[in-house]
């Protein structure tokens, strides 16, 4: 579809496209009229009332009045950067037809937005929270969005629970006080009644949820996806981002102090690093495995509360992403960027993970609400670099100027112009996975273990990391006012590890003991000694 208008013959004016980019030395209103006085509104006499006639005052104030758009319903606070991605070699062509992952000569532009999940747009960067790690690849086959997090599992197994999870963690509806003792009540109320959250809760109580910088975070696609080769062969794949500057975290006291001293701590260091030429880099890592391998695991790869342990399937590093340019404008880019897990390119496909399946609906729906129109795809940060050609038309804020009388297909009136008669070819084809089954609202038995990987995570921690988890859980549950919720949580933690549960119980005054509370050093010794005693009780 044509965006440019041809210059009328004999006109000295620029085309619309040229005019948009044309710098001007004079101050104008929004419609290009020069402004003679931007300091004073129009009055009836120097001490008289302002006049309704003052179109300059009205335009300026009215535009200001409409500056805000709704913040994201989750992941509201974010920081973004432009960069590039390049795959190391063509070895993945055995598994995927995606050119972005197989053509080593391609340098694909990317835009990345990091975020916290729960806080509002103005919340502090260093809050204990999952971080979003969303990457938009502007590939020659269209945009690919890898909309991930910095923690590999997720809290819940089924998308139908997502609004409940988020309502429990957001400020309470009646008084909108975040971070209050009672906000902890609602979150832990939900968590304590939803044991599938235990694995992710352990990650969130660990140092992973207070990263030192955004450049020190890993990223994960979380769900199992499919790779499809050019020959139509399918394998499963998990996506990882491995930071080349290593994984580093804050300690809790630092995180709290920074939240007060510099709420923009992460946003600022990302910006400063890029300005200084210290470009943050990540390698893209992949775990590729077959359906037969997946069937032999003792967990279900369609269950997003589980990860695939790296000793079962090692992570292969296949390419590098470098963030090398700060946005020119926060609102136009970082705020208006819109990610969708449905943005895929041929060679990558979804799995039947019921959390992912729900996300496939949610993002387009929420973008229309947040950005106000389905034409958000035409915003500069969202539009693909690949050409767009279809029969969609109209809608609020439509920018594309579609020529001709035809906006349907098949048609015989388009005159054969490719722009007017787009042909269906070379597109995404869903993997023809054989399907049988009865229509049910029920989870598979293979989704029923909620403690195994929580224990695996705990056991993989060093004593100091375990000590941090104990302290985090003591702190957080100390903010829960309802005793019954605290008791339920202690029982969940005991099922993960007895020392963890007992130490939290002791701190909450729920353990009959004459022993004084251990210092950090004593607690670490206790945890070191307990390593060999750990018994898994799934
Ligand atoms: C943002 C829904 C699970 C990663 C969002 C947004 C919604 C949403 C409505 C706001 C989008 C916007 O306004 O731009 C859901 C639902 C989920 C789910 C319904 C489960 C059923 C997940 C999971 C991940 C994730 C499992 C990680 C794999 C993100 C990220 C963003 C986001 C990174 C922020 C994107 C940005 O920076 O603009 N999600 N989400 N979400 N979600 Fe999810």
Automatic annotation (TrEMBL):
<feature type="binding site">
    <location>
        <position position="162"/>
    </location>
    <ligand>
        <name>heme</name>
    </ligand>
</feature>
<dbReference type="GO" id="GO:0046872">
    <property type="term" value="F:metal ion binding"/>
</dbReference>
<keyword id="KW-0349">Heme</keyword>
<feature type="binding site" description="axial binding residue">
    <location>
        <position position="363"/>
    </location>
    <ligand>
        <name>heme</name>
    </ligand>
</feature>
<comment type="similarity">
    <text>Belongs to the catalase family. HPII subfamily.</text>
</comment>
<keyword id="KW-0575">Peroxidase</keyword>
<feature type="active site">
    <location>
        <position position="149"/>
    </location>
</feature>
<feature type="active site">
    <location>
        <position position="75"/>
    </location>
</feature>
<keyword id="KW-0376">Hydrogen peroxide</keyword>
<comment type="function">
    <text>Decomposes hydrogen peroxide into water and oxygen; serves to protect cells from the toxic effects of hydrogen peroxide.</text>
</comment>
<dbReference type="GO" id="GO:0042744">
    <property type="term" value="P:hydrogen peroxide catabolic process"/>
</dbReference>
<dbReference type="GO" id="GO:0004096">
    <property type="term" value="F:catalase activity"/>
</dbReference>
<dbReference type="GO" id="GO:0006979">
    <property type="term" value="P:response to oxidative stress"/>
</dbReference>
<keyword id="KW-0479">Metal-binding</keyword>
<feature type="binding site">
    <location>
        <position position="370"/>
    </location>
    <ligand>
        <name>heme</name>
    </ligand>
</feature>
<dbReference type="GO" id="GO:0005829">
    <property type="term" value="C:cytosol"/>
</dbReference>
<feature type="binding site">
    <location>
        <position position="72"/>
    </location>
    <ligand>
        <name>heme</name>
    </ligand>
</feature>
<feature type="binding site">
    <location>
        <position position="359"/>
    </location>
    <ligand>
        <name>heme</name>
    </ligand>
</feature>
<feature type="binding site">
    <location>
        <position position="113"/>
    </location>
    <ligand>
        <name>heme</name>
    </ligand>
</feature>
<protein>
    <recommendedName>
        <fullName>Catalase</fullName>
        <ecNumber>1.11.1.6</ecNumber>
    </recommendedName>
</protein>
<keyword id="KW-0408">Iron</keyword>
<keyword id="KW-0560">Oxidoreductase</keyword>
<dbReference type="GO" id="GO:0020037">
    <property type="term" value="F:heme binding"/>
</dbReference>
<feature type="domain" description="Catalase core">
    <location>
        <begin position="28"/>
        <end position="417"/>
    </location>
</feature>
């Amino acid at each position: 579809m044509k965006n440019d208008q041809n210059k009328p013959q004999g006109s000295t004016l620029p085309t619309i496209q040229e005019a948009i980019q044309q710098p001007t030395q004079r101050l104008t209103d929004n419609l290009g009229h020069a402004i003679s006085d931007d300091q004073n509104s129009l009055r009836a006499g120097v001490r008289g009332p302002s006049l309704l006639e003052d179109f300059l005052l009205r335009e300026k104030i009215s535009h200001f009045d409409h500056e805000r758009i709704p913040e994201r319903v989750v992941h509201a606070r974010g920081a973004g950067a432009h960069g590039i991605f390049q795959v190391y070699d063509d070895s993945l062509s055995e598994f995927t037809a995606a050119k972005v992952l197989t053509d080593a000569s391609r340098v694909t532009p990317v835009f990345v937005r990091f975020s916290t999940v729960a806080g509002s747009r103005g919340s502090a960067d260093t809050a204990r929270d999952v971080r979003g790690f969303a990457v938009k690849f502007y590939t020659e086959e269209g945009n690919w969005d890898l909309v991930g997090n910095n923690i590999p599992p997720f809290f819940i197994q089924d998308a139908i629970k997502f609004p409940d999870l988020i309502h429990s963690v957001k400020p309470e509806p009646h008084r909108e006080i975040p971070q209050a003792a009672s906000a902890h009540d609602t979150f832990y109320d939900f968590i304590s009644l939803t044991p599938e959250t235990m694995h992710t809760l352990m990650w969130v109580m660990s140092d992973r949820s207070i990263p030192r910088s955004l450049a020190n975070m890993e990223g994960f696609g979380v769900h199992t996806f499919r790779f499809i080769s050019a020959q139509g062969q399918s394998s499963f794949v998990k996506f990882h981002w491995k930071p080349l500057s290593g994984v580093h975290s804050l300690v809790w006291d630092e995180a709290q102090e920074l939240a007060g001293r510099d709420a923009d701590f992460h946003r600022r260091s990302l910006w400063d690093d890029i300005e200084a030429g210290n470009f943050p880099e990540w390698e893209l890592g992949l775990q590729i495995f077959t359906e037969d391998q997946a069937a032999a695991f003792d967990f279900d790869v369609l269950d997003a509360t589980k990860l695939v342990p790296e000793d079962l399937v090692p992570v292969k590093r296949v390419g590098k992403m470098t963030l090398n340019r700060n946005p020119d404008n926060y609102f136009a880019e970082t705020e208006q960027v819109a990610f969708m897990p449905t943005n895929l390119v041929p060679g990558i496909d979804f799995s039947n993970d019921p959390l992912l399946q729900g996300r496939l609906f949610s993002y387009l729906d929420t973008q229309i609400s947040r950005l106000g129109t389905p034409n958000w795809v035409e915003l500069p940060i969202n539009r693909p670099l690949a050409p767009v050609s279809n029969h969609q038309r109209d809608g609020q804020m439509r920018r594309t100027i579609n020529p001709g009388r035809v906006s349907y297909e098949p048609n015989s009136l388009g005159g054969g112009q490719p722009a007017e008669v787009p042909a269906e070819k070379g597109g995404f084809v869903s993997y023809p996975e054989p399907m049988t089954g009865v229509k049910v609202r029920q989870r598979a038995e293979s989704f029923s273990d909620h403690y195994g990987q929580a224990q695996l995570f705990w056991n993989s921690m060093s004593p100091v990391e375990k000590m941090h988890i104990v302290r985090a859980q003591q702190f957080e549950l100390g903010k829960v006012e309802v005793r019954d919720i605290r008791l339920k949580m202690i029982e969940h933690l005991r099922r993960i590890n007895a020392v963890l549960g007992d130490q939290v119980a002791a701190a909450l005054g729920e353990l009959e003991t004459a022993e004084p509370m251990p210092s950090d050093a004593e607690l670490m010794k206790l945890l070191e000694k307990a390593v060999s005693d750990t018994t898994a009780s799934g």
